[in-house]
Prior knowledge:
Elements: E1 19-27, E2 33-36, E3 41-48, E4 50-55, E5 58-63, E6 67-70, E7 76-80, E8 86-93, H1 105-115, E9 119-120, H2 129-145, H3 150-167, E10 172-173, H4 183-199, H5 206-212, H6 217-228, H7 232-250, H8 255-261, H9 267-278, H10 282-288
Antiparallel strand pairs: 1-8, 2-7, 3-6, 3-8, 4-5, 4-7, 9-10
Helix pairs in contact: 2-3, 7-10
Amino acid sequence: MNNSKLRENIIHGNARFPLRVYANQKIGPKKELYCHWHEEVEFIYIEKGQANFNIDMNTVKVSKNQCVFVNSESIHWGYVRGTEECLYEAVVFNLKLLSGLLYDVCQSNFIDPILKRQYDFPVLPKESNREVADEMKNIVNSYIEKYNGWEVSIKASLLKIISLIAKYNEFKVKDGYTKLPDDYKIELIKKVLKFVEINYKNKIYVEELAEEVNMNEYYFCRFFKGITGKTPVEYINSFRIEEASRILRKSDKKVLDVALEVGFDNLSYFIKKFKEYKNCTPGKYRKLK
Length: 289
């Protein structure tokens, strides 16, 4: 989101500590969590409000103080429930961060099975949620404060979360070599997302996307919206707007140049869609950021 073109094009942390915390994230009536996936695991803590998260074609309702787990390579997106914003914290990390040189019982019984997808984190922890939430708060606070030894504290909390999931028998145990019925559909969607991520700067026709997965256009549109919650055109526009937002934050390029760079050939339409997704003009967005 080479395979990185399939995934979210963001580096989470660095090679020595592959973890990043995204604090004070918001989902609102005009701001969704766009449909994406990545190799890393993602732990989410809902600070306030209510939202729906769709993870691998399954929608879950979440509210204040709940935790959500997104397994490696799971397609996910989210949107607010109601009219109030939902505030959340996200911890995105590579599970290899928890691997050790010593192949001990922790590695063989838990870390390796999780890495191999023989154990999956539950989407919504239940009995463990309160204690997991405490560890999530510690991770976020440690990351923000960055006191001496903060990395050790975060790693300890991640391992504690795994121990809590195990304690309450909440891991989803499965055969790592057996495809689930929905896996084929998910692979098809990933193929489409790859195409958009590679070609978003150019004109993209729905017919092209349908051809990528050998479907007729009508069925493809229903199939795509059923999984992502958006029509193909809505998804392409939202992806382009996210890319435009990134460029606006990090450069002084003219708005017209940004529009052209992300695949919009009409400035008025670009501004209209930007306001639709971000609730402000590109120029105002740049000043706010």
